[in-house]
């Protein structure tokens, strides 16, 4: 059945995108580009956005099918809630942007409060209503050390889900970048889930992976459609949730290495400007800095970072497999 879920997710997205693109164009739902950004981006003004709707719809449909056949499908139900919740926040943000015809959607406060709300509901559904069982401790990679947080774990969940939701959003500024990195990430988490015996989570990762593969051909340079906040906020929220449900929270630092670097570049830029009046980078997030200094094929730079992240994660995978075997033994 896993093959069926993968094929269904792939086909739905691949078919929906060419249907949605002309619809978005007719409705003039095009991307607005920041004037201070790289001049090469100006030609992308008007490119249809909100393309994340296609793979999110694919994920919802395929997951509902999986819920019927998968035993112990509660993890999929919970992940589906997070997908829809963060996706809805992104959709509202995108809708405001395209209606106003500028690059300002929801205010930071509105977006932040909505994301916190989704994170708290996730905690209540999982730990209060016990839809799934996971530890309220943070597990340290490569060790058997776990830091118990008890109900303070809800603070960590909020930080993790909101933080990575926005991290993927920041990374989605180059054709195919966030999509490609997410494909790599969900591949890793699919493997980890099956190794740790979390079949339902593994199936959801496979659905995510193939839904994004169906979107990628339309999103790579030159992009015919952008995923928008609809897609990027959902992807980040899902990544954080999967790491939490697997009790492998800090694995996301390895898997989402580029997302972390992008976010840190923004934080460093803001801190430097406020403290010294000077900017570290020509523009943040850092992928815009690379573009402004004329770096060609900067995707190659991120491929190197991705390979490095993959190398580090292989060590983590070995540790996870050993831990699983010891636990089961």
UniProtKB/TrEMBL annotation:
<keyword id="KW-0961">Cell wall biogenesis/degradation</keyword>
<feature type="transmembrane region" description="Helical">
    <location>
        <begin position="200"/>
        <end position="218"/>
    </location>
</feature>
<keyword id="KW-0573">Peptidoglycan synthesis</keyword>
<keyword id="KW-0133">Cell shape</keyword>
<keyword id="KW-0479">Metal-binding</keyword>
<feature type="transmembrane region" description="Helical">
    <location>
        <begin position="225"/>
        <end position="246"/>
    </location>
</feature>
<feature type="transmembrane region" description="Helical">
    <location>
        <begin position="112"/>
        <end position="132"/>
    </location>
</feature>
<feature type="transmembrane region" description="Helical">
    <location>
        <begin position="6"/>
        <end position="24"/>
    </location>
</feature>
<dbReference type="InterPro" id="IPR003524">
    <property type="entry name" value="PNAcMuramoyl-5peptid_Trfase"/>
</dbReference>
<keyword id="KW-1003">Cell membrane</keyword>
<dbReference type="InterPro" id="IPR018480">
    <property type="entry name" value="PNAcMuramoyl-5peptid_Trfase_CS"/>
</dbReference>
<dbReference type="GO" id="GO:0051301">
    <property type="term" value="P:cell division"/>
</dbReference>
<dbReference type="GO" id="GO:0005886">
    <property type="term" value="C:plasma membrane"/>
</dbReference>
<feature type="transmembrane region" description="Helical">
    <location>
        <begin position="174"/>
        <end position="194"/>
    </location>
</feature>
<dbReference type="InterPro" id="IPR000715">
    <property type="entry name" value="Glycosyl_transferase_4"/>
</dbReference>
<feature type="transmembrane region" description="Helical">
    <location>
        <begin position="138"/>
        <end position="162"/>
    </location>
</feature>
<comment type="similarity">
    <text>Belongs to the glycosyltransferase 4 family. MraY subfamily.</text>
</comment>
<dbReference type="GO" id="GO:0009252">
    <property type="term" value="P:peptidoglycan biosynthetic process"/>
</dbReference>
<keyword id="KW-0808">Transferase</keyword>
<feature type="transmembrane region" description="Helical">
    <location>
        <begin position="50"/>
        <end position="70"/>
    </location>
</feature>
<feature type="transmembrane region" description="Helical">
    <location>
        <begin position="252"/>
        <end position="273"/>
    </location>
</feature>
<dbReference type="GO" id="GO:0046872">
    <property type="term" value="F:metal ion binding"/>
</dbReference>
<keyword id="KW-0812">Transmembrane</keyword>
<comment type="pathway">
    <text>Cell wall biogenesis; peptidoglycan biosynthesis.</text>
</comment>
<keyword id="KW-0460">Magnesium</keyword>
<dbReference type="Pfam" id="PF00953">
    <property type="entry name" value="Glycos_transf_4"/>
</dbReference>
<dbReference type="GO" id="GO:0071555">
    <property type="term" value="P:cell wall organization"/>
</dbReference>
<dbReference type="GO" id="GO:0008963">
    <property type="term" value="F:phospho-N-acetylmuramoyl-pentapeptide-transferase activity"/>
</dbReference>
<keyword id="KW-1133">Transmembrane helix</keyword>
<keyword id="KW-0132">Cell division</keyword>
<feature type="binding site">
    <location>
        <position position="229"/>
    </location>
    <ligand>
        <name>Mg(2+)</name>
    </ligand>
</feature>
<feature type="transmembrane region" description="Helical">
    <location>
        <begin position="76"/>
        <end position="100"/>
    </location>
</feature>
<comment type="function">
    <text>Catalyzes the initial step of the lipid cycle reactions in the biosynthesis of the cell wall peptidoglycan: transfers peptidoglycan precursor phospho-MurNAc-pentapeptide from UDP-MurNAc-pentapeptide onto the lipid carrier undecaprenyl phosphate, yielding undecaprenyl-pyrophosphoryl-MurNAc-pentapeptide, known as lipid I.</text>
</comment>
<feature type="binding site">
    <location>
        <position position="169"/>
    </location>
    <ligand>
        <name>Mg(2+)</name>
    </ligand>
</feature>
<keyword id="KW-0131">Cell cycle</keyword>
<protein>
    <recommendedName>
        <fullName>Phospho-N-acetylmuramoyl-pentapeptide-transferase</fullName>
        <ecNumber>2.7.8.13</ecNumber>
    </recommendedName>
</protein>
<dbReference type="GO" id="GO:0008360">
    <property type="term" value="P:regulation of cell shape"/>
</dbReference>
<keyword id="KW-0472">Membrane</keyword>
């Amino acid at each position: 059945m896993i093959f069926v879920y993968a094929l269904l997710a792939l086909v739905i997205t691949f078919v929906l995108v060419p249907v949605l693109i002309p619809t978005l164009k007719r409705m003039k739902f095009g991307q607005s580009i920041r004037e201070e950004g790289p001049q090469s981006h100006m030609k992308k003004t008007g490119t249809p956005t909100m393309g994340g709707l296609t793979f999110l719809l694919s994920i919802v449909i395929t997951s509902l099918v999986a819920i019927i056949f998968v035993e112990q499908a509660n993890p999929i139900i919970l992940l589906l809630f997070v997908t829809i919740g963060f996706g809805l926040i992104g959709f509202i943000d995108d809708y405001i942007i395209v209606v106003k015809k500028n690059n300002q959607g929801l205010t930071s406060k509105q977006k932040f409060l909505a994301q916190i709300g989704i994170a708290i509901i996730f905690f209540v559904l999982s730990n209060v209503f016990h839809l799934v069982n996971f530890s309220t401790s943070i597990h340290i990679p490569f060790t058997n050390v776990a830091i118990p947080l008890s109900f303070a774990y809800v603070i960590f969940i909020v930080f993790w889900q909101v933080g990575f939701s926005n991290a993927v959003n920041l990374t989605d500024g180059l054709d195919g970048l966030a999509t490609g990195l997410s494909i790599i990430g969900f591949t890793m988490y699919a493997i980890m889930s099956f190794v740790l015996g979390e079949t339902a989570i593994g199936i959801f990762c496979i659905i995510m992976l193939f839904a994004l593969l169906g979107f990628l051909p339309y999103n790579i340079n030159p992009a015919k459609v952008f995923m928008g906040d609809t897609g990027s906020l959902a992807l980040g929220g899902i990544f954080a949730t999967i790491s939490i449900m697997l009790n492998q929270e800090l694995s996301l630092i390895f898997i989402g290495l580029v997302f972390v670097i992008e976010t840190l570049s923004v934080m460093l830029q803001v801190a430097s400007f406020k403290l010294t009046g000077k900017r570290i980078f020509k523009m943040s997030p850092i992928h815009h800095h690379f573009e402004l200094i004329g770096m060609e094929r900067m995707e190659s730079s991120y491929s190197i970072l991705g390979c490095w992240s993959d190398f580090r994660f292989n060590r983590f995978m070995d540790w996870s497999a050993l831990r699983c075997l010891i636990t089961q033994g």
